[in-house]
Amino acid sequence: MALSVTRQRGRTGDPPTDDRRTGTTGSTRSGRSARSGSPDPTGLNGRDFRLLMIATLGTFANYAALLAVVPLWSAEGGAKYGGVGAATGVTMAATVAVQFCMGSLLRRLSLRQILAVGALLLGLPTFAYPFSSGLGFVLAVCAVRGVGFGMVAVAGSALTADLVPEHQRGRAVGRYGFAVGLPQVVLLPLGVWTATAFGFTAVFLVTGALCVLTVPLVLAMSGRRAPRPAEEVRVGEGRDGEAGTATATTTAAAEVDAREGSASAGVREPGTDGADGTNGPAGTNGPAGTDRTAGTDAQPRGFARYRELATPFALLLASAGALGGLTSFLPLSLDAPGTAPVTLTVLFTAGMVGRWAAGVRSDRVGVGGLLPASVAACALGMAGFAATDALGGAGSVAEAVAAVASAAVFGLGFGALQNDTLVVMFRRAGPEGSGTASTVWNMAYDGGTGAGSLATGLLAQGLGFVGGFVTAALVIAGTAPWSRPSKHRPAPHHTEPRSPEPHHPEPLPPEPHRPRVPRTEAHATQAHQNVTARPEDPHEPAG
Hints:
This protein is mainly alpha-helical. It has a domain at 47-222 and 304-483: Growth Hormone, Chain: A (Up-down Bundle), CATH 1.20.1250. Helix content is 59%, strand content 4%. It contains 16 helices and 6 strands. It has helices spanning 47-76, 81-100, 102-108, 111-123, 135-162, 169-198, 200-212, 215-219, 252-259, 302-308, 310-333, 339-364, 371-390, 396-429, 434-478, 521-533, and strands at 17-19, 24-26, 28-29, 32-33, 231-235, 244-248. The strands form 3 sheets. A two-stranded antiparallel ribbon has the order 1-2. A two-stranded antiparallel ribbon has the order 3-4. It has a two-stranded antiparallel sheet with strand order 5-6. Helix 1 runs antiparallel to helix 7 (200-212) and helix 13 (371-390) packs antiparallel against helix 14 (396-429). The longest helix has 45 residues, at 434-478. The radius of gyration is 30 Å and the shape is globular.
């Protein structure tokens, strides 16, 4: 298929759309597909984003419902606190491990394919849990599910960035957080209640089916990427002989590439997915979204890109560790009957509200402004949970009220923290680094959840739950200095050449005053000779 590039400044079009599964290249123009005349599937209200939200609900229904049920299942098999915490710890360790391999996966599979395979690896092993509650068997199943969840988490959040324009990204992340949080609000406490009322097998069968049924929805997505401010790239005849136009994101550096003979600058290579965030202009390939296009120094690359993401990574890691301890041990730490499901409901409802509100605010005011308050709320909430455990013998009502209040404070803070850290990472990584940002964010969330669950279990064996929750509060408080807004400013994606400043010659020093004398013909002749003999001043304007 022939490709030709035409650059017209000041125009904004739609990017070429590639589907690695079919090898076709289409185009979108003026909100509609040039080939089929159908509405553009991208954007906040587009078909692809709606399918992503439904698929997210299904996959996270599996994850959320089993987050507290699997530790209880291992406790049924006789595991102690260390083994109970290891169930979540192994799941998240496998999740983080596969995220280290995402760069290689993204070079071979599209985001949609990764999401579909991840849903299968997350859902199918769930049907194996009823066969045994032995700790070794449970941990083996958790490891396989962790691989699937890692693929689902990275692909889902990266697609969130790629399916919507940048000015809708904050709201898109907020809606994605809603789709992630709703199963946690409803199914995490419902899973605990269902397991105690109807047995663990019912929970495993239903959640496994919900996850597997998302695969057809994922494969039904178009694979197109949302429009970006760009220069026009004209595409020749497609596979069916129709001509169309599309655009790809290009910068001033792409013009340098074109002048140096890189004819494919700004054009996605056939066979790459337009929504993967890793294969950028000229078919760039790199670990999880690293942009290797020559001349794109306006955005961080390689180690510099990861360094830019270190601060939000640390903030999320600490608070996610606290969440891991809560989800694994809150049902075991609360004595009042019925308190755990209500507390978990409030915790994740508040988290969903906080994440949505932070997304709306980031689009209107700017990103990162809620980080200090979010960190403070998370630390305060964990201190409240420690006090709640200390009140366990003071009466069920006091314990329930303290637990619900602590859950509301921690949930609001952690929800806002999730949204702001993700949007900050997307902004710092640049438009071609969405895969990198998504991977790093999910590594912080999943790694923190697993490590926190394991650490809380180990601390609880020696210090009790109070010691575990107090330690989590102190760790979060220690990250507070990193939450203050920095002076970081993202580099512009396109810099117009500056016009040369006009040259202002330095004024000549004033000539010394000479007394005026009567001019004679001899004086005039001498003055003319002096003027013509004077050397030229290089700063004096010509003429």
